[in-house]
Amino acid sequence: MTEKPPVLRINNARRGCTTDTRILARRGWLTYDVVVVGEDETIGYNPATGKNEWTPIVGLQHYGDAEVWKLQNSWFTAEVTPGHKWLVDQQVTVQTETACTECGREFATGRGMTKHRADVHGVLTPRRERFEEQLVATRDFKQSTRIYLSKPADLGDQLPITDDEAELIGWIFGDGYMEPSGPTIVQSKPEQVHYLRGFMAAHFPCGEYVREPEGPQTHRIYRWKLTSEFWCDLASRSKASKDDALNFVLSLSVSQREAFVRGFLSADGTRDPRTQNDRLGYAAFQVSGPVAEAIKVAAYLEGYRPDTRVKTEFDSDRFGMQPMECIGFRTPIVKGRNLPVVGTRTADVWGPTTTLGTWTARQDQEIFLTATDVRRRTSRPGLTSECSPSGR
Ligand SMILES: [Zn+2]
Predict the structure, then answer these.
(1) How close is the Cα of 91 to the center of ligand 1, in Å?
(2) Is 163-331 a domain of CATH 3.50.50.60?
(3) Are 223 and 185 in contact (CB under 8 A)?
(4) Alpha-carbon distance 198 to 171, whole Å?
(5) Which fold has domain 17-91+130-150+334-386?
(6) How close is the Cα of 129 to the center of ligand 1, in Å?
(7) Percentage of residues in the chain with pLDDT exceeding 70?
(8) The pTM is what?
């Protein structure tokens, strides 16, 4: 081995995200200075299950004056150090065949077999390309690298409610308004009205009320009011409140969360006709606030990249003076070629260490899965962390 000449790389060891980056914990989005190492947990990726789950925060690094790259395309922005890592599918070339098909000789490695076939038999063995799950540094992204900004989550919790009740709460969060005695769902879109008439009557004790359209309205307006006895019971089992919507979302099982999101998007969502996928084309509209925040996290937990656009137009009659947010459920995968570095600067950075090696970060409105940096003090299940020559 020849020694490499020393390369001047300023703050190369200082890896992480800018200090405005928050981490998702059970108690909400935390700045680095309030994280309690050894107590707080975040959501990270378990390669053994292919799902996101809670993972303990076992360390925290904070550095001043690190080199920071701004990665940006038309729909995603992040500021991290060049050495900061991500969960990716990296294209690797492999040859798993070790026996020569010409003479039958066995080799220790596929590479050895390939060389032998070329040298001895003059036969070219085509290289096999496949994608391998790895943690890869920003500076090691290749054109073909597929970066995962989210994975579906199974947080291992479950509320004592049915999936239908979880869906109902989705409708209430999306379309309902609260009165002291309980929530009322209001709907006038014919398709949703048709569905709700069946759904509500089949599962829940409630009254249905109809009002004829007035003025510019073209459709009859339907209201469903749950009985207060039923709502009292459901509220105590679900602890569902709009003010604490994030905690509610974090407490749901996989099927409960799926039902909740289905209800919410049916009530409040708009389908993008460009895509056939049930969810990818959906966007939810909500005034800024706890429900909008919870829906972003729900989208993330469902395996999507929540894409938040804050609308400048809003209906001050209906929503008051709060801005409207359009929360899209978008693909979580971005290719290296589509995530260029658009700027560099020097900034303070931080990063956690987690047992799984990944965590859930937030920079402004971007919510994304990302990797912990650092020397490994904990054993991780499975994922290799590859360093390859720089090349984007
Ligand atoms: Zn041979």
Answers:
(1) 28
(2) no
(3) yes
(4) 14
(5) Endonuclease - Pi-scei; Chain A, domain 1 (2.170.16)
(6) 23
(7) 85
(8) 0.83
